[in-house]
From TrEMBL:
Gene3D superfamilies: Aspartate Aminotransferase, domain 1, Type I PLP-dependent aspartate aminotransferase-like (Major domain), Winged helix-like DNA-binding domain superfamily/Winged helix DNA-binding domain. It holds the Pfam family Aminotran_1_2. This is PLP-dependent aminotransferase family protein. Residues 83-104 are annotated as: Disordered. InterPro entries: Aminotransferase_I/II_large (IPR004839), HTH_trans_reg/aminotransferase (IPR051446), PyrdxlP-dep_Trfase (IPR015424), PyrdxlP-dep_Trfase_major (IPR015421), PyrdxlP-dep_Trfase_small (IPR015422), Tscrpt_reg_HTH_GntR (IPR000524), WH-like_DNA-bd_sf (IPR036388), WH_DNA-bd_sf (IPR036390). GO terms for molecular function: transaminase activity. Keywords: Aminotransferase, DNA-binding, Pyridoxal phosphate, Transcription, Transcription regulation, Transferase.
Length: 474
């Protein structure tokens, strides 16, 4: 079997958070972090590591730091270097978890309270949500407690309410077309499990939602990317790939794209919908960010534009109300929902009944919650863009239609190195490669404003200080 090779971007993700002690030398901390990866099996024997020069640039350290760290590991018998063959792992393989367990988790946040976290775009719950959730009484729950509590497709009343919600947004739906999930990530995992076998081809945008990449990779899918321009996906490339490749799945985030924040233009959406219907490719349209729009009402869904196509629409209440609620859904054909419910039964037997009862109440407040969210997010965007324009005037970004972050283009440098330098400067941002199936997007970072104006002000000021410091060192 061929020895694996790991690129500098992928290794930098595994090393996330390696430099935590300002009193300890960088080469010692790096050597310790690499030793931990080798011992855990995340860097198995035979793995070819990046060159000192390439990894040093990505981690924003000197080449000497890398040389010393690699030398330390060679002295411990963990690495083997040969002229012309590079540096390989010699460590003893240990059991390891597959897939996403070895990848950067952007939700991990900052362990040190002094660090400003502008990396995660998860929003806090709205204050009044606690009152609505708390209004679910023992009497409301008692009738369900008398039963077994397992509802793989979801509580019938909630499925009805979600179908009505989808219909009000322009996607005519029946309760039997809805399956309730424990959030949008479980919806993605469930679809991937039900539909994909190792080697199946999936088309994804580049960049795209890191959670979707995890779900597809964990099934052993082959990911083929479609470039995403600042105004949305390249429809010409997408349609050509649909017709020539006939992939198993196409995954799109047409409304408030994660991480870019833009909506797919209506004319482009119609072209893609027609191509999906023509080729028979199953389309996952991820609408879990639709409730973060602040530029207008939701545009028509892809499923409404292609009613006869195999479209699976994913929704969620997390961004509108509160992520801790863990209620999402899949809307598709009646037959496919039945199949998904069967797969679901072997996993967790259904979502929490109390959470579903709370969600049933909260769906009555969607208009109010959307108005509140739109106002908060519009203010956050304007505040953050003004701060970036003032403190980092050579950084540019895509003007979003919604969401809680900015997709920022760096004028120069490697985003992984910038993110690492920023972390040492006390602020977390997410490098663009996290959202890329090819470890690309190295000139982009995501800067979130979900943490609120005070944190954003301090975080941007720290970013500006780090950026000025890097430029002085050139």
């Amino acid at each position: 079997m061929d020895n694996p090779r790991i690129g500098e971007a992928a290794l930098a993700r595994l090393l996330d958070g390696w430099c935590t002690d300002a009193r300890e030398s960088l080469h010692r901390q790096l050597a310790a972090a690499l030793t931990a990866l080798i011992s855990s099996g995340e860097l198995p024997p035979g793995t070819l590591l990046p060159s000192e020069r390439a990894l040093a640039s990505t981690l924003a350290v000197s080449r000497g730091t890398l040389v010393t760290a690699y030398t330390t590991l060679r002295s411990l018998g963990l690495l083997d270097s040969r002229q012309g063959s590079g540096t390989r792992v010699r460590g003893v393989s240990q059991p390891r978890l597959p897939g996403s367990a070895t990848r950067l988790n952007p939700l991990s946040g900052a362990a040190d309270s002094s660090v400003i976290d502008l990396s995660g775009a998860a929003l806090p719950g709205q204050d009044w949500v606690a009152d609505v959730v708390g209004s679910v009484s023992p009497d409301d729950l008692r009738r369900w407690v008398r039963g077994h509590g397992y509802h793989p497709a979801g509580l019938p009343q909630l499925r009805t309410a979600i179908a009505r919600h989808c219909t009000e947004d322009g996607l005519i739906s029946e309760p039997d077309q809805v399956l309730v999930t424990s959030g949008s990530q479980q919806a993605l995992q469930l679809i991937a499990t039900a539909m994909l076998a190792p080697g199946d081809e999936v088309l994804v945008e580049d960049p795209t939602n890191w959670g979707a990449l995890d779900a597809f990779r964990d099934r052993g899918a082959r990911l083929r990317t479609i470039p995403l321009r600042d105004d949305g996906v390249d429809a010409d490339v997408l349609v050509r790939l649909l017709r020539s490749r006939r992939p198993r799945l196409l995954y799109l985030a047409p409304t408030v794209h994660n991480p870019v924040g833009v909506n797919l233009r209506p004319a482009v959406a119609k072209v893609i919908a027609a191509a999906v219907a023509e080729t028979g490719t199953a389309l996952i349209e991820d609408l879990s960010s639709v409730d973060t729009l602040f530029t207008g009402p939701p545009p028509p869904s892809m499923a409404s534009l292609a009613p006869d196509a195999a479209v699976l629409s994913i929704g969620s209440l997390s961004k509108l109300f509160w992520g801790g609620l863990r209620v999402g859904w899949i809307r598709s054909t009646v037959d496919f929902v039945k199949q998904l419910a069967t797969y679901r039964s072997s996993a967790d037997m259904g979502s929490s009944v109390p959470s579903q009862l709370a969600a049933l109440r909260l769906l009555e407040y969607v208009p109010r919650a959307r108005r509140t969210r739109a106002g908060q997010l519009r203010a956050g965007y304007e505040w953050t863009s003004d701060l970036l324009a003032t403190h980092l005037p050579d950084w540019t970004w895509v003007e979003p239609d919604g969401g809680a972050s900015l997709w920022v283009r760096l004028p120069e440098g490697n985003a992984l190195a910038v993110a690492e330098a920023a972390r040492r400067g006390g602020v977390l941002i997410t490098p663009g490669s996290v959202f890329s199936a090819t470890d690309g997007q190295l000139d982009r970072v995501r800067v979130s404003f979900a943490a609120g104006p005070d944190a954003v002000l301090e975080g941007v000021q720290r970013l500006a200080s780090v950026w000025r410091g890097r430029r002085r060192l050139r």
